Amino acid sequence: MEDTKCSRGRFLRIIITLFFFLLSTSQFTIAGTHVKYLPGFDGPLPFYLETGYIGVGQSEEVQLFYYFIKSESDPQVDPLVLWLVGGPGCSGVYAIANEIGPVRLDSREYNGSLPTLSYNQYAYTKVANIIFIDSPVETGFSYSQTQNGKHTDTHLACEQAYQFLRKWLVENPQYQSNPFYVGGDSYGGIFVPITTRVISDGIEAGLEPRVNLKGYFLGNPVTFLSGVDNYKIPFAHGMALISDELYESLERDCGGEYQEIDPKNTLCLQHVHTFKKLLTGIYEYHILEPVCDSISTEVHKHSSQRRSLDEKFEKLKSPITLPGMKCREHWWLLSENWINDDAVQEALHVRKGTIGIWEYCNRNLPYTSTIEDAVPCHAYLSTKGYRSLIYSGDHDLTVPFQSTQAWIKSLNYSIIEDWRPWTFGGQIAGYTKTYSNRMTYATVKGSGHTAPEWNPAECLTMLRRWFYYKPL
């Protein structure tokens, strides 16, 4: 039962295996380019960055753009990571410049000039070689040469990620023996376990080059698309965002189901409406941070609707609209301003004319969700003995830690090490638990939806310990 939910079935896997085998026998040329300087960063980059395109699909009509950053420690032996950004439709640049990469966009008042970058000493690239890809197609700088190739779904995106990886390893054979992990966060909670499963199937089928797959890791992962809201109300109550009385009424009249409510259950609908009204002014990605004002929200709408770049950033330049970096979405808009600069795209070796306005997340992605529950994939990968690290920023309302703990518990593996604190710098950085399926769960205290964005030093320490099989 778990196997059929996690894939299209045995027959389709055979077809996919044959498809990849035929591709593995074809000839292809890939040319990654070393990027030594980036506009906005002072001086030469103190790390190795390579960018390029890799064609996937039967005739390589889909061109996936990637950013490869070598480990800043020991690239010959450190793990190799394929990082899948969430969304779906969010670019690898988002992860590089806001979360786990070696640069950070400086948060400051926007005055119309090119945003600047600073070095991030707590990047995951301190302990790993990381390939960031703009996936699925139509994300970031990835594009299709055909109209049909623009459309993708969950299965196809994961299959194309594996095809990308195999081609990349052919061109970079020095990394074929490195321990390999798939990583991601947010909607990557869907892509990562499925892609890991596809890679595992390819290994069993004997596909070359053989990937030295060891496991996967995820932060605040979207794991199922239906039912997440059921965990937001207990989270909000525990964080004192709603009253005891409202929580008790919700529990009594909704019976724990807050997402798919019977239209005849008027009491439940009324309570849920009150709940949503109370949380209108709460920033879901981190409940302690401010929400953007209405004008900034309108700017975000313009981004989603692909309005002109000039119109959007004229609003950012207005001192009335944006007197300073007051909310996190302003930082994200800065990334759009930075990367849509011609000099930046030239430095990254982007092919001119292949995309329109670059967006950090493509809200109009031609993508169909074909898997809405990744729990069966976690169950399957557990039977194969792969390691996994799952962590939750504990102030995230978007994917509350309760929802992640619930699906982990549903796997029904015995506890090897029970709930205990883990520390950083002599202070409690969160809590952790380990299971017999080689899964480690951890919270990151005080962090939000993309934990390294808020607690970079703690998250790097956590990952380093886990990579090297040390207790958190």
Automatic annotation (TrEMBL):
The chain crosses the membrane at residues 12-30. One of its GO terms (biological process) is secondary metabolic process. Signal peptide: none annotated. One of its GO terms (molecular function) is acyltransferase activity, transferring groups other than amino-acyl groups. Keywords: Membrane, Transmembrane, Transmembrane helix. InterPro entries: AB_hydrolase_fold (IPR029058), Peptidase_S10 (IPR001563). Belongs to the peptidase S10 family. This is Serine carboxypeptidase-like 9. It comes from Capsicum baccatum (Peruvian pepper).
